[in-house]
Amino acid sequence: MKIQNGIDIVEISRIKHNIETSGDKFLQRIFTNKEIEYCESKKMQKYQSYAVRFAGKEAIYKALSNYINFEYSWKDFEILNDKNGKPNVNLNFKIKELENIEVSLSHCKEYAIASTVAVFKEK
User: Fold this and answer.
1) Could you tell me the sign of the dihedral formed by the alpha carbons of 19, 86, 64, 112, in that order?
2) What secondary structure letter does DSSP report for 70?
3) Which regions in the chain score pLDDT beneath 50?
4) 17, 38, 53, 72 — which has fewest CB within 10 A?
């Protein structure tokens, strides 16, 4: 078994600025429709939700980077919450060695942070 991790932190104001200046173009490039629906449902905290998912996608890429050799799309990594609120990772591709991947998300007023742990079978 091999364990890879990834972590990322982002300023929420940076993501808010990108959304406000690029609008749907930015959202449609980075997030799936389900992610957008979830974030928009958060009303006043929607920017925190977008930012933490952005950080999550960066963290996922970092954890998987030794196992993927293609130009990925942001939408290939989807982060959705289960009925209990726990974030789960959906990948739109397969890595045969990947046994499990977990993501943890957190945010405050100014920052969003994400950590990912991926467990792989030995090659």
Assistant:
1) positive
2) S
3) none
4) 17
Classify strands 2-11 and 111-120 as parallel, antiparallel or unpaired: antiparallel
Length of the chain: 123
Q: Which of 121, 58, 115 shows the shortest CA–CA distance to 95?
A: 121
8 Å CB contact between 32 and 43 = no
Could you tell me the residue range of the domain that residue 7 belongs to?
Answer: 2-120
Contact 58, 80 (CB under 8 A): no
Given this model, what pLDDT does residue 23 score? 79
How far apart, in Å, are the Cα atoms of 14 and each of 10, 21, 30, 43, 75? 8, 11, 14, 18, 20
Provide φ and ψ at 112, rounded to 5°.
Answer: -125, 140
